Amino acid sequence: MNQDVKETHRPPYGIISVLMIGAFIAFLNNTLLNIALPSIMTELKIEPATVQWLSTGFMLVNGILIPTTAFLIEKYSVRRLFLVAMGLFTIGTIIAGVAHVFPILLTGRMVQAAGSAIMMPLLMNVMLVSFPVEKRGAAMGVFGLILMAAPAIGPTLSGWIIEHYDWRMLFHFVTPIAAAVLIIGFFLLKDKKEKVNIRLDVVSLLLSSIGFGGLMYGFSSAGNKGWDSPQVYGTIIVGIISFVSFVILQSKKERPMLNFSIFKYPMFALSSAITMVINMAMFSGMILLPIYVQTLRGISPMDAGLMLLPGALVMAFMSPITGKLFDRFGGRILAVIGLTILTVTTYYFSKLTLETGYTHLMILHAIRMFGMSMVMMPVSTNGLNQLPARFYPHGTAMNNTLNQVSGAIGTALLITIMTNKTESTATKLTQEAMSHASATGGQQTGAAIAAIKQQIAAQAMLEGINFAFLVATIFSVIALVLALFIKRATPAKDPIEQKATSPKVAPKLAEN
Question: Are 259 and 378 within 8 A, CB to CB?
Fold first, then answer.
């Protein structure tokens, strides 16, 4: 466990503040980019299945690196880890800001991800160690308020920047802020850490990288190459084999890189399952909605950002309230109410038309975010609360890894579902149009044919988006059923501490 930040009566607010600012900048960058995806698609002449790599590629790197963060937190000080994380994020932002081709832009995003992968588990671990269980919900609520300010600001700011400047300005805007945070952290963070004699297990790192990386790459490639591609199912199979080997190896080690024994704590295992399913549902709104409003409806980036603003503000406003409610009532009632709202609103998003009103979309999205605000933090905090303190680095690393993997899988599945449904609907509508034209025997001008093709393409994409939202609704229902089994968690007894203090153990040790 990270011993340089010990649980005291007065939490280290200075360290927490610097870490939160760094995490806020990283989160802001992600929310800025979502609105920009259609503009990037147009300028760089790429398809939705390709542009999704700006999100899934980011998550791929996170999924590979986050499993190592438990080791890093145990070995290095908060100061060193923060400076490395923020330095990598700043360098990645500069690379992305000068990109004029997609591979360079993707490289910049992946370097950003290398920094972000360290930042979030580090902050979560400091929060868990710094606050007792009975105050943890309120503390996480304030943490959520600060981070939720990013999606409140991000889409609107992104829309304004894209309307007035090139999309690269999104990265140029973040660069000086990230550099300033890096400098502040260099001077303000002074924590020391005693030298810890642990080494990174290279074999475990290799198996982890191939396992998580293979799974995420395989699922993410399905949108471009199709599920029948050897590159897709081949990497998924290799990923599964490597992941299983990684788990078996970790179970045999005295000091595993990522401790899978934490899943024997039922509330942590349940919370992990729920958050994975929610992540798969959540990405439907983050990826599909901007494509719908900008590509199909022609709504400007600025107006698209404003449409998402009320939902983000609701989520930010609710975060500290949800934290206090969690401390008082526990996670189950919040999760059940929130997931019911999430399920209903996601279903209504599967009924979009080419004439759905702007205000209707704004209100529906705001209600959906209200439901989401009652789920993510209470569920994950309740699961972490059951872990003994020495497992906090492994719990936060595991949570963040599973979030990235499920996010990548969810994004890939929903984009693939949308693409396949769009193609099948386009084929069907084209055949119907040709049959109608041959039946009537009428001659059509080139302009009329072009208009029909455009209409078919729009209707086909709409059907694809609606079907993807319907699948996301099924994910929400699964999460709702799982949430019914949540119980309020309290820290479990540490088996190692029990052995050390048990009076029954002492005679046996003496006999040996």
Answer: no
| Sequential DSSP letters for 345-389 | HHHHHTT--TT--HHHHHHHHHHHHHHHHTTHHHHHHHHHHTS-G
Structure token pair of residue 495: 């088996």
Q: Is there a single domain that holds both residue 91 and residue 225?
A: no
Q: Can you give the C-alpha Rg of the chain in angstroms?
A: 24
* Shared domain check, 211 and 176: no
Nearest in space to 54 (alpha carbons), one of 230, 257, 278, 290: 290
Q: Residue 339 and residue 318: Cα distance in Å, rounded?
A: 15
pLDDT tens digits for 128-174? 777 776 676 777 777 777 766 776 677 778 878 888 888 888 889 88
What's the CA gap between 435 and 450, in Å, rounded? 17
Q: How far is CA 189 from CA 2, 11, 19, 82, 184, in A?
A: 15, 14, 10, 9, 8
What distances in angstroms separate CA 503 from CA 377, 491, 498, 507, 508, one per listed residue? 39, 22, 9, 8, 10
Q: How far apart are CA 23 and CA 28, in angstroms?
A: 8
Whether 504 is covered by a domain: the verdict is: no
